[in-house]
Amino acid sequence: MKFNITTIILFVFTSSFLFFSCDSNYVKDNSSINESSTDTSANTTEQSRIDSGEVRPAMPVNAAAVTVKVFSATENGTAGYGYDILMDGKLYVHQPHIPAVAGNRSFASEKDAGIAGELVAYKIRNNIMPPSVTVEELDSLGIK
Known about the structure:
By secondary structure, the protein is α+β, with helices and mostly antiparallel strands. Helices cover 35% and strands 18% of the residues. The chain has helices at 5-21, 41-51, 110-125, 135-140, and strands spanning 66-75, 78-87, 90-95. The protein has a three-stranded antiparallel sheet with strand order 1-2-3. It is globular and about 55 Å long. The two termini are 13 Å apart.
């Protein structure tokens, strides 16, 4: 079964939406909310964690600033492909091997490297950090 990049992006977006919409802080009973008082302690606590360097705030990523560049790679005499992720024209990720797969094997085709690179770029654009790739994701994309 073949998937095109649009189908993959739509699947990842939908999955992310469902994951983040299932928030454990959901309030079922609105009567417990007192509109006259505002609790800023949570905001103050979060701001203090950011100020201390414990956490970094999510930074929006300009979608146009993240690009994928496929390159030819030779590993142990075997030709293959890899990808670079550029952010604002600067190298952000250099991936000469198939991620999540044991060994140092390059992608078999330029198309496979591009699809995997676009998945990582999608994760970066949507602040899904780290933008790691799993064996299951590669399998669902048809990359072996």
